[in-house]
Structure formats: structure tokens, C-alpha cells
Amino acid sequence: MSNDQNDIIERLKSVIDPELNKDIISLGFIKNVAVNAKQVNIDLNLTSPACPYLDDIIRDINKALEGYSVSINLGYAVY
Q1: How many Å apart are CA 54 and CA 14, to the nearest integer?
Q2: Among residues 34, 31, 32, which one has the least CA distance to residue 2?
Q3: Over the chain (79 residues), what is each successive 10-residue block's mean pLDDT?
């Protein structure tokens, strides 16, 4: 893993799921992080398409990654 990827992952640890009170890295919601200069592509898998906190989580991801252009690929875990 590159230093840039490590930096992004560390920043994403500040993003807390409001319902579960844990960060999105610990919860396993981030499946992939790709960094190319100041462009970051993230695969975000939530547990439900009806997640009431989706907008909050996306806002917090963008805030945590300020200075980067962020693209989020949204998916949902299948259990």
C-alpha cells in the first residue's frame, strides 16, 4: 500500500457512522482506495440502500479528504 493510500485510510478513520458510533474503516465499509495524484476513488459498501445517514457519511468523507477530488462508488453488502 502506498503512502498516499495510508494517508487516505488514516483520514477516513475520522468518519464515524452516526448509528453505529464506529469509524467506517473499522466497520469494513471501505472496500478499495485508489489514489492518483489528488484524485481519490473509493468503494463504499453500506449495509442497506435505505441507510438514513448516507448523506452525512458522504459529507464527512469529503470533509476528511479536503484537498482531494473524491469519487465514491457506492455499493451495498449482501448478507
Answers
A1: 16
A2: 34
A3: 87 96 96 95 92 95 97 86
